Amino acid sequence: MRIAVNTRFLLKEYLEGYGYFIQEIFSRLVKAHPEHEFIFLFDRPYDPKFIFGKNVTPVVVGPAARHPLLWKYWYDFKIPAVLKKYKADVFFSPDGFCSLRTRVPQCLVMHDLAFLHFPKGISGPQLRFYKRNTPDYIAKAKTLITVSAFSKADIIEHYPAASNKIRVIHNGIRSSFHPRSFEERETVKQQYTGGKEYFLCTGSLHPRKNGMNLLKAFSLFKKRQQSSMKLVLAGRLAWKYESFTESLKSYKYRDDVILTGYLPEEELAGLTAAAYAMVYPSLYEGFGLPVAEAMQSGVAVITSSNSATQEIAGEAALYADPTDINAIADQLKRIYKDETLRSELAVKGLEQSKAFSWDTAAAQCWKAIEDTIA
Questions:
Q1: Which domain holds residue 47?
Q2: Whole-angstrom Cα distance, residue 93 to residue 134?
Q3: Rounded distance, CA 106 to CA 86, Å?
Q4: Are residues 74 and 109 in the same domain?
Q5: What angle do CA 314, 213, 190 make, to 5 degrees?
Q6: What is the pLDDT of residues 89-145, one digit of tens each?
Q7: 8 A C-beta contact, residue 361 and residue 170
Q8: 334: closest CA among 293, 277, 289, 287?
Q9: Which residues of 331-357 are buried (b: 16+ CB within 10 A; e: fewer)?
Q10: Is residue 320 domain-shared with residue 364, that is, in the same domain?
Q11: Mean pLDDT of all residues in the chain?
């Protein structure tokens, strides 16, 4: 069997969401199924570390697909030719896009519908592309995967045609995220905050991640508590971040806010495990991987009350309306003043995190691939 995989998000310097998903799933499937051939389709030169076994054939399919016109060209013209050339039995795509011009059966992963709920978070051409093509992608795909029951319900509500082909496969959590010793945590704190405790928010900076409200809530917390607590924001500047960075210049507690930029996995894992608490007030999430990573690291979590993060964290987190800065600030204060509560949440989080395994997710994806071919 020849499984073609859209691997254009396996980027050495910026491995994020879709890229992590592909890396974790297919590093396992390549090793678990040496009898099958995997054709990895990159849109630019690739790093050899992403070729997970001898049964992987890497193919660079140019040009780099990084805006809507090239998306259309890459998926609908370049991909069909490659699938035909390599006699692929199935095409697996992790980014919500598939090819409308191939007869090869396709397994499509649609993580969420953020473009519908927060259209201001992406450019006009991108938004028009998503709105125009998503219904066709859902109709074209033979099987659909999403990452939470929340996203499944959301997708079916807006695109009823998905209802008879969609399944939930939860993300897993990378093994690098785990509790660290006191000495390791102190070393991380010295490196980033001069030894001070810190709240951590992980993820690329863009409007949907709700950075402005987090800054306002942190300001309220600082005024009320007179605490030396820091706020660490770990992630690259993605898009429409200018108002956030501009506000930060005149922010009263600017010296207590640390922007790390993009961090390699092991460094991010250490930063997560050393945090006083994870604060993740995203306006919309299809899963919320930083929440799961914090739980597996033995770190208490404060997150949003209106998306998939409730499904992921269960009783192992405190919740706040992400649009209410007072609610976020109240939960910051609560977890800061109640050490017993913080410890209880950390213990519950470790237990809750056991539900999310990349081994399980990979096995379920393999079943989806088999079903797609069948």
A1: 2-172+357-373
A2: 13
A3: 15
A4: yes
A5: 80
A6: 999 999 999 999 999 999 999 999 999 998 877 889 999 999 999 999 999 999 999
A7: yes
A8: 277
A9: bbbebbeeeeebeebbebbbebbeebe
A10: no
A11: 94
